Each structure stands twice: as structure tokens, then as C-alpha cells.
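Progress narrative, work stream C.
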Amino acid sequence: MIILGTISVGLAVFLMGIDEHKALALGPGGPLMEDFWENMRRYGLYALTVSTGVLYSVFQPIVELLRNPISAILVLTIIGGSIFIVSQVVSAMIGLSDFSYDYSY
């Protein structure tokens, strides 16, 4: 087992030495840092494109419904009612309303 382990470790070290392009972090300007900032830029761009795509997919059907006057009234009523309900729930959650629970036991 020891001989087999030694041979496998030696083979791994040999295969690592064959690679000409080693990734060495040579301080703040090293190749790994350049790749890091390039990946960070790509992830930010990815997050921006995904979020704008989701917003477009959500609002496109609503814009289509707003072109018809009857459905526009319904959509605006639903949006207004939703905003009102959410504002009432949030104000009750943070204690801005005067509503109190009277438990009668």
C-alpha cells in the first residue's frame, strides 16, 4: 500500500510539473487577480441581464393588457388594491396603525 501510494503521489507531482502555464498569484497584479476581476465583471453583467430580462418578462403582458381600456381599468384596480393591502399590512406589522387585539377569555 505504501509503494502504491508513493507511486500515485509521484505520478501526480510529475503531471503537475508538465503544465507550462502555472497559475501563480503574484500579488495584486498577478494573473489570478486579473481573472478574478474579469469574473466579477462578468457576474455583474450576468446579474444585470437576468434581472432586466425578468422585469421585461413580467411587465410585457401587463403593458399588453393596458392597451385595451376595459382590461386597463381592471389591471389598474388590481395594482392599486395590491399597493393598498401591502401598505396596510406593513403599517400593521411595524406598529403604525392603532389597531389592537382584544382577546376576551
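Work stream C, second folded protein:
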Amino acid sequence: MASNSKSRLLLLGIFVLLATNVSSYDEELINQNVKQGKYAKPLVSPVAPVVAPTPPPPPPVKPPTPPAAPVGKAPTPPPTTGHPVAPAPQPPVNPPVAPAPGPVPPIVRSNKDCVPLCENRCQLHSRKRVCVRACSTCCERCKCVPPGTYGNREVCGKCYTDMVTHGNRFKCP
């Protein structure tokens, strides 16, 4: 039983070997004939790629029609008696009020003041040490740390908002 399956396997291997040799020999003959000018093109045509048919385009969509205006009478103007009507008094216009000042940054006098402010600023950061180190650098250069744990960067001015890393990311948290 085992020898029967072995012999079948051997015969299959020999068949595959001969088939590949024959097909490669045919290709060599075609290539030689093409070089010699006997054939303009190889006899074997390349297999065309299978392209799925494209679906038909969707039907055009009609734009919605605007609702019709309600039918009714236009408001009638007040009757004129021949006397000039005084215009209604206008309320006094107040000048624009300046917005309330935003959060005030804590005062930084020395580099020692930066550490507690930066620890407070970075308390919720996922990489606290990295945040504190960057914040301390910004604090020393700009003499300012924004209030809160996030945002309010514009309070410290252009020095704080424009400082970037080598990768052009904002340096100051």
C-alpha cells in the first residue's frame, strides 16, 4: 500500500518536471524566432486582466423645490392723517464694553517660582516629568506659566505661544 502511493507520487513528480521543461523549451523557441524575425509577436498572448464591470451611474437627483409662499394679505400701513408723525425714540447706544480680563498668570520672579507652577500645570499630564521639564524651560525663558492645567497659552504672550521644538511642535505645555 505504501509503495503504491510512493510510486504514484514519483510519477506525479516526473510528470510535473517534464511539463515544466517542455513549456520552458517552447518559450525559448518562441523567443529565438522573435529575435530572428520569423514572428512579429510571440504566439502566446498575454492574459488580459479581468476588470469588473462598472455599476451604472446613479439617477440624477432633483433639487428640492422651495416651499410656496403663504397666501394672505399684506399688512396694511397705518392711516395717515396729514400730520407728520414723530419718529419713535431710540434707546441710547452704549459704547462697547471691554471684555473682562481673562485669567491672570501667576507672577514669576525667579527660576525657583517655576517649579511649583509647572507641577500644578502638569499634574494631569500623562508624561508628567517631560511636561514639567518643558514647562520649566518655557518659564525660565518667558517668565510666565499659564494658569490651569491646559489651555490659556495666549495669557503668557508671544514668547510662550511661539516657542517650538525641533519637530515644529509647541514646546510649552
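The mean pLDDT is 75. No further action is required on this item.
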